[in-house]
Amino acid sequence: MSSRILSIGVFMTLMLSSLLAGHRGYCRAKEAITADLNQALMRTWEEKQDNIVTQDSIRAYRQLRRNSDGPVWLAIADKKLCRNLKNGKLKDKTFLSFDVVDAAYPGTPTKDNFITSDTLLVNNRETGATLAIKSCARLSTAAIFRMSDQRWSFLLALSALVWAIGFRYFGRRKQVENEEPQSYGGLSYSVEERCFYDAYRVPLHLTPMQHQLLLMLWENPSHSVPKEELCAALWPKKEDANDTLYTLVRRLKPILESYSRLRIVAHRGRNYSLEAR
């Protein structure tokens, strides 16, 4: 698996986790608001009992329903209900709604941008009417999102952003390093082009074996490689390649000395080194 695919996979995983965490926080906020509306409605009912909706309100509701072609939804601002809310952000957005449960009762349709409590069915002693009462909060999706805990979502999204920036930065840095020719002793090597150049950017014309030998010496940190390692890499099937290696080195030497300040030096017949003059 390439580092690019791995990086994209990590980024997508972090972003997906951020979205899931955000959605979970949003749903928990809605559940908390609904629970707050339920407890506020019950406390208000315990305090006010039958007076939670007045006879005048019921009469007005019935008159509106008779004069309306469609369903009627009556909302009543109630100070006690708002005081019973635990979440202060809901106080100026919450109200009571009620329907009279009879043959013309339209049910309790869900309205957009509203979160409602469970329905409380009570009997009004003054009129004998059965009422379906709810506490409602008018909240937009953005408002609910602001009330939700999005810390994990934010941290995961931030991690994804930092990961993407870091990968781009280090990837670009590595690309630049690879593109920049490595220089030593008046000679340079381009990894991208897999070619050696002299100080005037003239390419060295080497045979494949000469190129491979020079590259092994070049890439070693000390620019020194044991003869056995060179023979094993260049002629893996040949039992004794010392003479062949000697011939290859002898033919490469004049090319290096003509185009650079480098030379190949043998050390006690054990190692070959690339040294600057």
Quick recap:
With 277 residues, the chain is α+β, with helices and mostly antiparallel strands. It is built from eight helices and eleven strands.
The DSSP helix count reads: 8
Q: What count of structural domains?
A: 2
Radius of gyration, CA atoms, in whole angstroms: 41 Å
Instruction: Give the N-terminus to C-terminus distance in angstroms.
Output: 43 Å
How are helices and strands ordered from N to C? HHEHEEEEHHEEEHEHHEE
Give the CA-based shape: rod-shaped
Low-confidence stretches: none
Q: Beta-sheet strand percentage? A: 15-25%
Class per helix and strand makeup: alpha+beta
- Major sheet summary line: 5 strands, antiparallel
Residue share in helix: 40-55%
* Integer average pLDDT: 85
Q: How many beta-strand runs? A: 11
Secondary-structure blueprint:
Blueprint: H1 3-48, H2 55-67, E1 74-76, H3 79-83, E2 94-100, E3 114-116, E4 120-123, E5 130-138, H4 141-147, H5 151-179, E6 182-184, E7 187-190, E8 195-197, H6 208-219, E9 224-226, H7 227-234, H8 242-259, E10 262-267, E11 271-276
Helix pairs in contact: 1-5, 6-8
